[in-house]
Specification:
Distance between the termini: 27 Å
Number of helices: 6
Structural class: alpha+beta
Strand order of the largest sheet: 4-5-3-2-6-7-1-8
Number of strands: 10
Helix content: 25-40%
Order of helices and strands: EHEEEEHEEHEEEHHH
Amino acid sequence: MATVMEFTSPAAEFPLGSVFENVPGATVELERLIPHETLIIPYFWVRGGNTEDIEAAFEPHVGVTDIRMVDSVEDEYLMRAEWEQEYFGILSALAKANVVVLSGTGTKDDWRFEVRGESQDAIAEFREDCRENEIPITITAVHAMLPIQGEGYELTETQREAMVVAYERGYFDSPRTASLEEVAEELGITQQSLSSRLRRGHRRLIRATLIGSS
């Protein structure tokens, strides 16, 4: 059974974390990606950073060979990074274990990842590789993928809980009767985490009900 794990890692541990030294108010969000053993080129967004040269904000870091800006929308920048194949870090460990990155968000405080392995063994392999290579991660949740009301409606337990509570409290009503802050406080998570869970949950439901049936 597919297993989802959420974990955090220090901001400086992940190569892209070097941006926070120059732009401490920035948020970096990885695009959903499937690491490959021989080529890891993730696209990612940088938000909340006021700098004339966003590329220069990323100082050279071990493991990164190149970072380029692909597009920009106001103060949001779409970037592309290329990695040293020999560098062993979080992405390399994920690629080796064939684990998919569902989301990855970094701030000056830490990185927060949600990943999916096709089995518990894949997740276990990733954790063991991190331990053997002294890659610091803190696991915050591990759970199985749940089919919700039919084949293809796969939501994690945390995504389903977030969407149900937000619905019941009136977050989706017009006008809203509950704010993002209030729902997040009830769930005991940050507003950023709640927003991420709702966004990923919506994407999976849309893919299953609209895209998949078109």
